[in-house]
Amino acid sequence: MATTTDTADTVVAEDGVRRRDFIEIAAVATAGVGGIFTLIPLISQMSMSKDVLADSTTELDISALEPGQSIKAIFRKQPVFVRNLTQAEIDAANAVDVDDLRDAESLADRTLEGHENILVVMGVCTHLGCVPLGAAQGEIKGEFGGYFCPCHGSHYDTAARIRKGPAPTNLEVPEYTFTSDTTIVIG
Amino acid sequence: MSFPWAKQYEPTNPLMKYLDEKLPLPRLVYNAVGAGYPVPRNLSYMWNFGVLAGFCLVLQIVTGVVLAMHYAANDAVAFDSVEHIMRDVNWGWLMRYAHANGASFFFIVIYLHIFRGFYYSSYKAPREMIWLIGVVIFLLTMATAFMGYVLPWGQMSFWGAKVITGLFGAIPLVGESIQVWLLGGYAPDNAALNRFFSLHFLLPFVIAGVVILHIWALHIPGSSNPTGVEVKSESDTLPFHPYYTAKDGLGLAVFLIFYAAFVFFMPNALGHPDNYIPANPLSTPALIVPEWYFYPFYAILRAFTFDFILPAQLWGVLAMFASILVWFFLPWLDKSPVRSGRYRPLFRKFFWVLMVDMAVLFYCGGAHAEEPYIMISQIATAYYFLHFLVILPIISSIEKPEPLPFSITEAVLGSDEKAAQGDSAGTAA
Ligand code: HEM
Ligand code: FES
User: Fold this and answer.
1) Residue nearest to atom 3 of ligand 2 (CA)
2) Is the pLDDT reported for residue B425 higher than 50?
3) pLDDT band at residue A53 using 50, 70 and 90 as cut-offs
4) Cβ density class A10-28: b for 16+ within 10 Å, e for less
5) What distance in Å separates the CA atoms of residue B22 and residue B24, rounded to the nearest whole number?
6) Domain residues for B206?
7) Is A44 in contact with B95 (Cβ distance < 8 A)?
8) Are residues B244 and B301 in the same domain?
9) Residues B240 and B342 in one domain
10) Residues B277 and B257 grouped into a single domain
C-alpha cells in the first residue's frame, strides 16, 4: 500500500515515515475501533431482554400446603418444587451421614431456619435437565422417597439430594425468602 | 476481462500460495476490488454510490436478521413485537431505527446511483447489461421495502398493503382473483403478513445474488468515467486499491455521518406517525401515502383520473409500472455516440429538466390527492414520458456534441503525449 508512485510520497520524513503512512494508520485504526464498537449492540441484543428479566421472581402462597404435599410452580420458565415435609421424611433425611453423600449437604443447609419442613428446589435434574418425578400425587418418588428422574435414573432423597444415578449434584435450592409465614418469594 | 496492464496476484506466503491453488478466493478479491483491477483515474464522487449501495444492503441484512430474531409475524402480536423490540430488547431501538432509516438511505444512494447513470449515459454500450441488471435490482429493492413496511402492522402498513395489492385488482377480468391470491384473504390479514415476512426475508438475499451479476457484468468493460471516453492506455487508469478503496472509504465516512444523524437524532423524521397506530381494518388514515421513496411513482399512479378506452384506475397502474420499465429501453432510446452529459449541451439541459420534473412528482406524491396537485401530477407525468420516449431520441439525433478529449489522461493532465504518439499499451476491451 505504501509503494505508490505519487509526488506527495517522495517527500520522506527523516525517520522514513511519510504523512500518508500516518493518515492511513489513523484512518484504518479509527474504522477498526468503530467496527468493534458496533459489535456490542449486535451481540448484546441476543441476551435476555428487559421483559424476561422483569419476570424473574415468583411469589407463592403455601398456606394450603399440607405435610406430605408438594406444589409445582414456575420460576424463570423452569419448574420449581415446594414440598411440605412430613416428620418421617425429615427424620429420614437427618438419619443419613452427610459425609457419605455425593454432594454433602444437610437438610438444614437446604432449608431456611424456622421452616425446616419447607423444601424448595428447582425441578431440574442436575444431570441433563429433565424434570424429575415425585412432586405430583401418584408419581414415583424413587428408591429414597424424594424425587426420581426418569431420563437416566437419578434418585433423590427426601431432602432432594442425589443418592443414586448419574446426576452430579443435589437438586438446586434457588434463592428465596419468606415474606410472611405462608408466602415465599423465589428469586 | 481486464486491461492487459492489470497487476497479477502473486502470493508469496506459502499458505496463500496453497489457497490460491485450491480456492483462489484472495485472487478473486484482488482482481475485483484490489490492486488487480485498473479503474479510470478520473472517477468523481458520483462513482461512490455503487459501493455505498452494497454497504446499505449488508447493513439491512445484518440489522434485519437481528430484528427477525425478535419480531413475530402474526397479525395478533406483530405490532406489539415491534414495540417489544423498541422497549425490551437490548439495543433493539438501535437495530430497528438502523433498519428503518437504512431503507431510506438505501434509496437515497440508489437514486443518486441511477441519476449518475442518466447524466453520464452509463447505460450505453458496452454497459447495457449492467444497466438492465441494475433496473432489476431497483425493482426487487422496491418490492422488499414495500413488504418490510407492512411488517410492523401499523395503520400505514395495513393500508399500504391494501392499496398496493389493490393495484393488481385493477387488471381487467382476473384482477380481483389475483389480489385475493396475493393476499390469501379478502383483505390483508395474517396470511398476507406471514407471506410478506417470508418474502421480505428472502428477497435481500436474491438482491445480493443479482448484485453479484451486476458487478460481474461491470468488470467486463470496467467502469465508465466522467468524460465517457473509454480507457486507452495504462496512464488512464489507477489500481482500485489503494486509490479507490481510499476514495470510497471517505465517501462511506461522509455517508455514515448523515445516516447516524438520522438514526440518533431524528429516527422518525422519514417515517409516518400513523404507523405507530395498530392496524385497523375499519378506518383508513386521512392521508394515505407510501414511504417517501415511492412518492414520484405514487404521483404517476394518481395522475389518471379519467376513463379513456381503459378505465382510469388501470391507466394509473400501467403508467406507474411503465415509468420504471421505460428505463429498460434507455440504451436504445438514447442513440447519441457521446456518453457524458459534460459534452452534450442540449442533453444536459433536459437532464436537469427531468430532475425538476421528478422533484415535482415527488412533491405531488406526498401531497393530498386534490387540486392543484392532481393537475400538476398530470402535467409532470406527461412530461416524464415525453422525456424518455420523445425528447431523448430527438436530442440524440439533432444535438451537436462539444469536442471530446482525446483520452482520460488528456482530460486530467491537459495533454497525453504517450497516447498522442500512438504508444498506447492497448485499447479498451
Ligand atoms: C434490501 C434490503 C432491505 C430493505 C430495503 C428493507 C426495508 C424495510 C423497511 C422499510 C421496514 C419497515 C421499517 C419499520 O418501520 O419498522 C423493514 C422492516 C423489517 N425488516 Fe427489512 N429491509 C431489508 C432487508 C431485511 C432483511 C435481510 C431482513 C431479515 C433477514 C429484514 C427484516 C425485517 C424485519 C423483521 C422488519 C420488521 C421490524 C420493524 O418494523 O422494525 N429486512 N424493512
Ligand atoms: S437428566 Fe435426569 S437423570 Fe439424566
Assistant:
1) A152
2) no
3) confident
4) eeeeeeeebebeeeeeeee
5) 6
6) 45-288
7) no
8) no
9) no
10) yes
